[in-house]
Write a structure and sequence with these properties.
single chain, 406 residues, 0% strand, globular
Length: 406
C-alpha cells in the first residue's frame, strides 16, 4: 500500500520551542477541554432543574462526548490542511456561542443540543497538541507533549472544581456564561500570540479524511494505542460521570461545592504526565503501558471500598487518574512519531476512538448506577481494566525502527 501523502508547506518545526509558547498552549488546551466537564459535578442539580432522572441526566455527558468525537473525526484533520492559528480562533468563537446557548437553555433537550455543539467545538484543544508536537524537536517531543497534555488534563479535572464552586456561589447558568467569555478572550489571545502556520495541500478535504482512514489501516501502533486510549477513557468517564450521584447521596450527602472539590484530588494525577513523556522518550513505552494499565485496575478495587470510606475513595480517584493520564501521554508520544506532516490526522484517529470510548463508558455507567449503584460502576471499571491490560501487553510491529524499540 503506498504511503499516505504528506502536506507540503507546513512551517518547519522550531528546534527549541520557547517556554512561554509551551505554557500558552498548555493553558489554552486546559481551558478549551474544560468545556466538556463543567456539567459533571452539576448533574444532580441539573436533573432537579430540568425535572428528570439521574440516568437521563447522565446522557448530557454522553451527548457532549459524542459531539467531541464528531469534531475529532471531521474537524481535527483540517489541522493538516488549514492555517491552524485562524482555525483555532474561529472554533473557539463557536464554543463561546454554544456555552452561551447552554446557559440560556430552558429544557433538557435544548441543553443537550448546545452540549453537542459545545463538544464539537471543544476539539480545538486537540488542534493545539499536534501544533506543540510540530514546534518541538525530536528529542524533546515527548516532554513538550507531556507538558501541554498536563495543561489539558488539569483542565479536565479542575473544570469540575471550578464548576462546582461557581454553581454553589452564583448558580449553574453563570458557570456557562463565564466560560463563554473565557472562550472569546482566549480566541483573541491565541490569534495574536500563536506563530503563523501557513500551509498548502495536495489533498482535498475528502482526501484528507480518506488519508486518515488509511493511516489507521497502515499503522498497527496507531490502532493499538487508539484502542488503549478508548478503553482507558471509558473507565475514567464511568467514574466521573457517576461520582456526583454517589457523593450527593448516602453516606456522604455532600453539597455541590464540596463535590466540585473532588476535581482537585484527581488533578494530582496530572503530575505524572511529564514523567510519562520522559519514559516514552527513553524507549520504555511498552512496559510503562502495562504498568499504567495495572494501576487503573487497582484503582477500581480502592473505589469499590470507597463506597463507604472517604479515604479509599480519594485514593482510588488519584490512582485512576495517574493510570489513565500516564497511559494517555505514552500513547500520544508514540503516535506523533509515526509520520511527519500527518500529526493532526494521527491525532484524529486516536482521539476519536478515545472519546467514543469515553461516551460509551459514561453512557453505560449512568444506566448501571441507576440499577446496581456504585458497586456496579466499579465492576464495569474492573472489566474494562482487564481488557486494557490485555491490549497493553501486545507489542505490534510498527514498521518504524525507532518505534519497534518501544
Amino acid at each position: 500500500m503506498p504511503p499516505v501523502p504528506d502536506l507540503q508547506a507546513r512551517a518547519p518545526a522550531t528546534p527549541s520551542v520557547s517556554g512561554p509558547i509551551v505554557a500558552l498552549l498548555a493553558v489554552a488546551c486546559g481551558l478549551a477541554v474544560a468545556n466538556l466537564y463543567y456539567a459533571q459535578p452539576l448533574l444532580h442539580l441539573l436533573a432537579a432543574n430540568f425535572s428528570t432522572s439521574s440516568a437521563l441526566m447522565a446522557t448530557v455527558v454522553t451527548v457532549t462526548q459524542v459531539g467531541y468525537a464528531a469534531g475529532l473525526l471531521l474537524l481535527l484533520p483540517l489541522g493538516d490542511l488549514l492555517e491552524r492559528r485562524r482555525m483555532v480562533a474561529v472554533v473557539l468563537v463557536v464554543a463561546g456561542a454554544a456555552l452561551g446557548g447552554a446557559a440560556l437553555s430552558g429544557s433538557l433537550v435544548m441543553f443537550e443540543i448546545f452540549s453537542l455543539f459545545l463538544g464539537t467545538a471543544s476539539v480545538v484543544a486537540q488542534v493545539l497538541i499536534p501544533l506543540a508536537a510540530d514546534l518541538a524537536s525530536d528529542k524533546r517531543r515527548g516532554r513538550v507533549v507531556g507538558t501541554v497534555m498536563s495543561g489539558l488534563l488539569m483542565g479536565i479535572l479542575l473544570a469540575r472544581t471550578a464548576s462546582g464552586l461557581l454553581a454553589a456561589w452564583v448558580g449553574w447558568r453563570a458557570v456557562y456564561v463565564i466560560a463563554a467569555v473565557v472562550m472569546l478572550v482566549l480566541a483573541l489571545a491565541l490569534r495574536m500570540l500563536l506563530p503563523e502556520d501557513p500551509t498548502s495541500s495536495e489533498l482535498s478535504y475528502l482526501g484528507l479524511l480518506r488519508s486518515a482512514a488509511r493511516l489507521a489501516l497502515e499503522q498497527p501502533v496507531l490502532r493499538q494505542r487508539a484502542v488503549l486510549g478508548g478503553l482507558a477513557f471509558a473507565a475514567f468517564s464511568a467514574i466521573w460521570t457517576t461520582l456526583a450521584f454517589l457523593l450527593s447521596g448516602a453516606p456522604y450527602h455532600y453539597s455541590i461545592g464540596v463535590i466540585g472539590l473532588f476535581g482537585l484530588v484527581g488533578a494530582a494525577g496530572a503530575l505524572c504526565a511529564s514523567f510519562a513523556g520522559r519514559l516514552a522518550d527513553r524507549g520504555w513505552a511498552h512496559p510503562a503501558s502495562i504498568g499504567f494499565a495495572i494501576v487503573v485496575a487497582v484503582s477500581f478495587v480502592l473505589m469499590l471500598l470507597g463506597r463507604t470510606s472517604l479515604v479509599f475513595l480519594l485514593a482510588g480517584i488519584v490512582v485512576l487518574d495517574v493510570g489513565v493520564q500516564g497511559l494517555g501521554i505514552t500513547n500520544q508520544s508514540l503516535i506523533y512519531r509515526l509520520q511527519d506532516g500527518a500529526r493532526s490526522r494521527l491525532n484524529s484517529v486516536y482521539m476519536t476512538t478515545y472519546f467514543v470510548g469515553g461516551a460509551a463508558g459514561s453512557g453505560l455507567a449512568g444506566v448501571i448506577f441507576s440499577r446496581f449503584g456504585w458497586a456496579g460502576v466499579c465492576s464495569l471499571g474492573f472489566i474494562i481494566s482487564a481488557a486494557l491490560i490485555a491490549v497493553a501487553a501486545q507489542h505490534p510491529g510498527s514498521g518504524s525502527p525507532a518505534l519497534d524499540q518501544v
